[in-house]
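Subgroup meeting minutes
Present: P.N., E.W., G.H.
Scribe: E.W.

1. P.N. recapped why we're keeping a running log of single-chain structure predictions: easier to compare across weeks, and new members can see raw inputs and outputs side by side.
2. G.H. added today's entry (400 aa).
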Amino acid sequence: MKAKCDMGFFLKYLANFLLPRVLDICIIGVALIFTTPLHAEKNNPHLSLKLEVKRSIKLGNNYLLGQGNENGSWSDDKHPAITALVLTAFQRDPNSRPGDTQGAIDKGLNWLLSLQKPDGGIYTEGLANYNTATSIMALLASGHEDYAPAILRARSFLVGQQTDWGKGNEDDNPYDGGVGYGGTYKHSDMSNTHLALEAIYHTRQLALDNGAEGQSTLDWESALTFISRCQNLTETNDQEWATDDPEEKGGFVYFPSSSKAGEKPLKDGKTALRSYGSMTYAGLLSLIYVELDADDPRVTAALAWLAENFSVEDNPGLEKQGLFYYYQVMAKSLAASGRHTLTTAEGKEIDWRMELGKKLVSTQGADGSWKNETSRWWENDPILTTAYAVLALEQLYATM
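Output recorded in log:
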C-alpha cells in the first residue's frame, strides 16, 4: 500500500513539477540554438539582397546548365577558359545543385584535362596563359585530389611563362615580371598577370602538400615590379609616362606604355595613360596576391581611385566595354581585400556589395542570363557574361 502511495506521489511530482521544467529547459536550449543565428540574420542589412542574390545565382546556373555542348564544353570550344568559368560558377553555387549538374561538371572537367599539353598548359590554339590559369581555378574548385598532378603541371607552366626579357638582368625591360597571353602575344599585361597570380597563389598549398615545392617558383618581387609599372603612381612607378594627375593617380593601365582607355594630355605637356576600372581592380587583386601591406601606398592609392570612380553602370574609362569582366574582378578584389565599403575623399561610404548586387539582380534576363550589347572582348556571348555575373554574385554571397 505504501509503495502504491510512493509511486503515485512520484508520478504526480513528475507530471506537475519535474516534466514542465525539463520541457522549459529543452525549449530554452532550442531557442538558444536557433534564435542566435536568426537574430544575427535579422540584423543583417543585406539579408533581403542576400536571398535575391542566391536566387539569381540559381537562375543563372540553370541557364548555363542548358547551354552545354555534347563534348562537355561551353560556347566556343577553342577557348577552354569559357568552359572553366562556367564550371567554377557551378561549383561555387550556394544552392542545392540539380542532380544533373555534377555530371556536367565531371564531363566538363574531364574535357579540360583532355586539352592539357605536354608542357602542362591547358589550351587549344592560343591564349595559353589565360586558358590555363582559368582552367586551374575550375579544377581546384572541385576539391578532387585526383586532379592534383594535372593542376601542378599547369601551375608549373604558368610559372614558366613569367617574362624576363633581359634574360637574368634586373627588371631592365618594363614587361619583365609579368605574364602575357603567350604565343604571338608576347608582352606581359595586367589582365593575364592577375589571372596567373590568382592560380599560382591559390595552388601554393597544394604544391607543398604534394611534395612539389621543388618545382620552379614565381619571382614575386619581379612580379611586383611589373604590377607597379602598370599603375599611375610616380612614387613607385619608374616609367616616364606615370602621372599623379588627380584624375588618374592610383589607377592602373593594361601594360606599361598602353591603356585601353587611351591617353590624356596634361597641362605640363606630358601625355598620361588613362586609368580604367577593370585593370585597377585587377591591379588591386595582384597587390593582394603579392601580399603587400594594406597601408602600402600602391594599395591605398588604388583604393582611393576606385572609390572616386566607383560605378556599376559602366567600366570606368571604357563605358560598357568589358563590363561583366569588370563586375567579376571587382567582386573578387574587394572580397579578397576584406573591405565592405569604399570611402571617397569627402568621406562618403560606398556599400559596393549592395550596389553591385542590386545591379546584377535587376539586369538578369527572364531566362536567367545576362547580356552585354557591347561586343568587345567576347561579351556579346551570353554564356560568358552570365558566367562572369554568377561568379561575381557568388563572391558577394560569400561575404554577406
